[in-house]
Amino acid sequence: MHTHRPARGAVPGAGGEGGGGSEGWFDRFAEGVARQVAKAWFFTGCVLSIVVWAPMILVIGNVDTYQLIVNTYTTIVTFLLVALLQNTQQRFEDQTVRQNREILARLDALQAAIVKPPIVMHFGPEKE
After folding, report:
1. Cα–Cα distance between 99 and 114 in angstroms, integer?
2. How far from each other are the two terminal CA atoms of the chain, in whole angstroms?
3. Mean pLDDT of the chain
């Protein structure tokens, strides 16, 4: 029996728009972001943003404004990434549960299909 298997990382019916088990635009977007933030260029960009921010105290002058800039920037980035990565994680967990249920169903079917030999009980030596 041939079954359709979704592409790696794809979770059919996980919040997709338009029905039919297709992923919605947000799911595809979240998946793309999750793949990109795991790469070295994203980390490098984060480090560079701090390197650019650090000497800005000389231009800004006010320590409160200086700290507010980096706190606001990091809070916004963190908030958005948590939302996107949570979407990706939830879809992954949903897919894992579906796969585990499919495995259990197939194991149940296999167990039901196995013919067990009859049990012969001996209660002592056979009498002639």
Report:
1. 23
2. 54
3. 80
Q: How far is CA 24 from CA 27, 29, 34, 75, 113, in A?
A: 5, 9, 16, 27, 39
DSSP label of 39: S
CB 88 within 8 A of CB 31: yes
Write out the two tokens for 5: 């298997």
CA distance 46 to 74: 9
pLDDT digits (tens, 9 = 90+) for 4-21: 444 444 444 444 444 445
> Could you tell me where the DSSP H helices lie in 9-127?
25-37, 40-53, 57-60, 63-113
Six token digits for residue 34: 């999750």
What pTM was estimated for this model as a whole? Answer: 0.54
Predicted pLDDT at 113: 78
